[in-house]
Amino acid sequence: MNGRQFDALAQVLLIEPDNLVRGTVASVCRDLGLVHIVQATSLAQGEQCLQASPLRGLMLSLADCDAALDLLARLREKAFACDAAIPVVVLASACTKAQAVRLKALGVQRLLLQPFRLRDVIHTVEQLWPAAKGASVQPAVAAAAVQPAAPDAVEQPAAPAAEAPPAVSEPAAF
Q1: DSSP string spanning 60-95?
Q2: The pTM is what?
Q3: Mean pLDDT score of the chain
Q4: Which residues contact 139 (CB under 8 A, 6 or more apart)?
C-alpha cells in the first residue's frame, strides 16, 4: 500500500492498555489496508486524540470500565472534535448484563470479548469501516476475511481433513 492509499483509509482510534493486543490489531489493520489505527495506551491519551482529530471510529477497551463508559458518554454528547455518532467497538474480557445494556444505550455497534480471534477483528473492521475508494486490497487479503456462521453457532472440535472447518460465531453486535 502506498502513502496515498494509506492516507485515504479511515482513521480509527484504538484505546487499549495491553501492548500486545494494541500492536497486533494496529499491524493487522495496516497490513490488510483496512483502516489506519491511531493508538492510545490510556483513556487520557485517547481523550487527547479525540479532542485533536476528527476520527472516523473508536475501538475502546473496558479495562477501566467506569472511566471508559464515561468517555463514551462524553463522545455521544459531542464533547470531542469527531462526529458524536462514529462507530464504536468495545473490547472487554467480560461484560455483565448491566454493562451490555449501558453499551447498547451508548450506541456501541460491536462488543468483542477477549480473547478474541483476529478474524473477528477483521470482520468487525470490514463491516464498520469499508475500505476507502482508491485503496486496493489484494484478492488474497480479501479472502482472509472469514464469513461467520449464525450467531448461535458453536465451535466443534478439530475435524479430520476431509470434513469442512468448524463454524465460528459472529462478534456480538448491538
Answers
A1: EE-TTHHHHHHHHHHHHTT-SSS-TT--EEEEES--
A2: 0.74
A3: 80
A4: none
